[in-house]
Amino acid sequence: MLLGLGEGLFETQLTAQNYLDFVFQTTIPLAFIFELPVIIAFLTSIGLIGPGLLVTYRRYAYFILLVLAVILTPADFISDLAMTIPLISLYELSIVISKRIIKKKMKGEKNGDLT
User: Which residue stretches, if any, does this entry annotate as coiled coil (predicted)?
Assistant: First the structure.
């Protein structure tokens, strides 16, 4: 249906290469970005970062996430906003997860469990 829109005005060129380029340029980077909570949980569990660090540098993280959203989405404000809000939410979720991991570690150390 959409392919017939503006018939005669445009030449539709659907190829597998165009589709794969789209997939690799949008879907794959977004999939990695949405792994943010898992990556932060791992880094917290091995002791490289903590919730205090995440809270301290929250302003800079928001800016970096905004820049990533602008780079990865089409050039309109709504798409940028639609990407930025979930990314910031994931960052905040990462802080909560990091706090829980630290709390579990502290509780384990109190009980004598060093794992």
Answer: none
How many structural domains does the chain have?
A: 1
CB 44 within 8 Å of CB 94: no
Query: For residue 54, how many other CB atoms are within 10 A of its CB?
Result: 21
Domain of 92, in residue numbers: 18-99
Tell me the pTM.
0.73
Does residue 49 lie in a domain region? yes
Chain centroid to CA 65: 8
Per-residue pLDDT of the chain (115 residues), as tens digits, is 555 666 666 666 778 888 888 778 778 777 888 899 999 999 999 999 999 999 999 999 999 999 988 887 777 888 888 889 999 999 999 999 999 999 998 888 887 665 5
- Give dist(CA 86, CA 65) in Å, integer: 10
